Amino acid sequence: MSESAILEVNNLYHTYMEKTPLEYKALAGINLQVKKGECVAVIGHTGSGKSTLIQHFNGLMRPQRGEVLVDGQNLSDPKLDVKALRRKVGLVFQNPEDQIFEKLIGDDIAYGPLKMGLPLKEVRDRVKWAMELVGLSFEELKDRVTYALSGGQKRKVALAGVLALKPEILVLDEPTAGLDPFSRQELLDRIALLNKQEKMTVIFVSHNMEEVAYLAQRIYVLADGKNLIDGTPREIFGNTEILRRHHIAAPQTVEILAHLKQRGYSVDLKAFERESAAKEIVSILQPFRR
Amino acid sequence: MAGFEFELSRNITIGQYLPTGSLVHRLDPRVKLLSFTILVIAMAICDTYVGNIIALAFAICLFYISRIPISYGLSGVKPAIPFILILAVLQLMFYNKVASGGTVLVDHGFILITSDSIRLVIVSALRFIEIIFLSSVLTLSTSTTQITHGIESLLRPLKYVKFPVHEFALIITIAIRFVPTFAMEMEKMMKAQASRGAEFGTGAWWRIIQRTKDVFPIIIPLFNVAMARAEDLVLAMEARCYTPGNERSIYTKYKAQNKDYIAILFCILFASLLLLFPFPY
């Protein structure tokens, strides 16, 4: 195990419906390493194996071939304490608001901690902590009914339900899919906060390159069950060659900069973060001022 | 079987269709449904060892003809094993009045086991397996749309006694169509709840209340999802101008061909063999 990697995947394979005519190879030799405190994005087209991969992180699926190590624990170990693992790795599924089942918001978030057998006082503290982390007022909302919430708020409740387990690693499957732009940005900011302030390791799957560029420190690109390439957003989005070769969609800013470059303006293609891109554009406009 | 605890959909063979393009797949669905009914009736009546072994062999042959792996049939039998066993015990204990013929093997208090009751037990188990195999072949080789069209067209004469044939067929299609969908939905829900500490089926079996409570986190969201899906379905149907009770023309017309006549003739002959031939055992 390499140093300081909290999560490591070595040559992982998974085949659905193995040995039947409907056999489908979802993972075909994935390698991945995530360091403690990192925020990593996993991108790839539909069917590239992203969802299958992240279900290996908290033991919902066990490796068929290859290995998955979480904090030094091998997930192939039959004696593994799965409950402890799932507390350590919090997995938030796509459309997590579907999983809300209690009548009151507070009760639903308390489900995980209660299942852990924590004392009531501790459960209450955790619910409060989790709700405030996602930006829901504990006093105001804990006794509200769950079905009267908006989509964005429901998703926050579901996220809080996982956070209440105090995971060290937070894994999110398309966290902002189907949200309106405002809720989307708010949720992204909350996830960034969890990563920076609470020092949580965050791994997320996304199809939205704007949010990948905004959140991720490192990106893994998956295709056909294999990882093609990984690197920082600047290394991936800033390299037109890589983008073209692997058919990766890029954030709008990258495309704007590329167009400007084509027209002969001297811009730095790697400076695609919103602020840096704005500076590049302003620097082009500079001579025209007055 | 580590890692398969949540893979529900692989255990559900109802509504699964396995296109292999075999002869059985290409038969007219009406013919398949009729043959299926005839064969099931014959198997249910035939009560000899030899007859049932022949019927079982026939069912296994069907898997080969339709090029479907026999493992599909076996995975259908697996969940039925407890029922078969319970049924066997009950028959052994209480059916001695009905099957009192043959030689007495055990006569101990109220337990009376005769060679006839043994035969009843074994034959019922064989019948069970035969019928499961047969229905597996039917559903695996016939898509759900074909099955409904077949049912609708076979039931059409009932229209004259004001039986809502089309609605009935539609209900069946929707029900069958959504079995795998809900299995997947449930799988996802189990995984999501397990991710936040839920456990299923781990408590001792006598703690019924606890174990019932354990399924609330799955059942309640599943209900919500089902309702939402039903609403979507209604919208989708209305958007295509579905009006209940309207006269509707049919897109697929079935016309029986020679192979269909041969198939049904063969099934009738086989069924009469099972019913009429005096098998020695």
UniProtKB/TrEMBL annotation, chain A:
Main location: membrane
Intracellular or extracellular location(s): Cell membrane
Signal sequence residues: none
Gene3D superfamilies tied to this protein: P-loop containing nucleotide triphosphate hydrolases
A Pfam family matched in the record: ABC_tran
Topology relative to the membrane: Peripheral membrane protein
SMART domains on file: AAA
InterPro entries for this protein: AAA+_ATPase (IPR003593), ABC_transporter-like_ATP-bd (IPR003439), ABC_transporter-like_CS (IPR017871), ABC_transpr_CbiO/EcfA_su (IPR015856), ECF_ABC_transporter_ATP-bd (IPR050095), EcfA2 (IPR030946), P-loop_NTPase (IPR027417)
Function: ATP-binding (A) component of a common energy-coupling factor (ECF) ABC-transporter complex.
The family this protein is said to belong to: Belongs to the ABC transporter superfamily. Energy-coupling factor EcfA family.
Subunit architecture: Forms a stable energy-coupling factor (ECF) transporter complex composed of 2 membrane-embedded substrate-binding proteins (S component), 2 ATP-binding proteins (A component) and 2 transmembrane proteins (T component).
Name recorded for this polypeptide: Energy-coupling factor transporter ATP-binding protein EcfA2
Organism per entry: Fictibacillus terranigra
Automatic annotation (TrEMBL), chain B:
Statement: the UniProt record of this protein carries the keyword Kinase: no
CDD domains membership: EcfT
Residue intervals passing through the bilayer: 33-65, 80-99, 120-143, 261-279
Keyword Ion transport listed: no
Superkingdom: Bacteria
UniProt membrane topology term: Multi-pass membrane protein
Signal peptide residues on this chain, from the entry's feature table: none
Keywords assigned: Cell membrane, Membrane, Transmembrane, Transmembrane helix
Localization of this protein: Membrane
Full protein name: Energy-coupling factor transporter transmembrane component T
Species for this entry: Fictibacillus terranigra
Lineage: Bacteria, Bacillati, Bacillota, Bacilli, Bacillales
